[in-house]
Specification:
about 150 residues; alpha+beta; GMP Synthetase, Chain A, domain 3; 2 domains; 3-stranded antiparallel beta sheet; 3-stranded mixed beta sheet; 2 helices; about 25% helix
């Protein structure tokens, strides 16, 4: 079994708390020492109580799913000896309310892969993305629909 950890820290700072007028800005610190400024999304909490330039949990969720998929895709390609120069995914998450619960119901991954040498056929590329999806720990952990959309 493997464990993972992150420290999430928030302090009230100036202003009131009980009236809901407090900053949602906080930090995430990871085991390697990197600290990321985080906040509630300004889509959910109005400015100035959300910090627009900070990463919000919903963005992080979409990025984590995309990153997990990409890492498995790169691993599969390397095992098949398919050279890759770059991989860029402009992933999009959709939040909606279903049966009274608000959730990120869907994440569309839109990877653009630049290959070095011969690129795989479209069918082989789709198969590699399917394998990456099946192997991704995070995709296996959530009920969000995750679609890979190739141009």
């Amino acid at each position: 079994m493997t464990t993972f950890s992150a420290r999430v820290a928030w302090a009230r700072g100036e202003g009131s708390f009980t009236d809901g007028r407090y900053s949602r800005g906080h930090s995430w610190t990871f085991d390697g020492g990197l600290t990321v400024p985080a906040s509630a999304s300004p889509h959910n909490v109005p400015l100035p109580y959300a910090v627009a330039e900070n990463v919000d949990p919903e963005e992080a969720y979409v990025a984590a799913l995309s990153s997990c998929h990409m890492l498995f895709y790169l691993w599969i390609a390397s095992k098949k000896r398919i050279g890759i120069e770059s991989y860029v995914d402009d992933a999009i998450g959709l939040m909606e309310t279903i049966e009274g619960k608000t959730l990120v119901s869907r994440v569309d991954l839109r990877p653009r892969v630049v290959y070095s040498g011969d690129a795989p056929t479209r069918e082989a590329e789709e198969d590699m993305h399917h394998q990456a999806h099946d192997l991704c720990f995070l995709a296996n952990s959530v009920k969000t629909v995750i679609e890979v959309r190739l141009d």
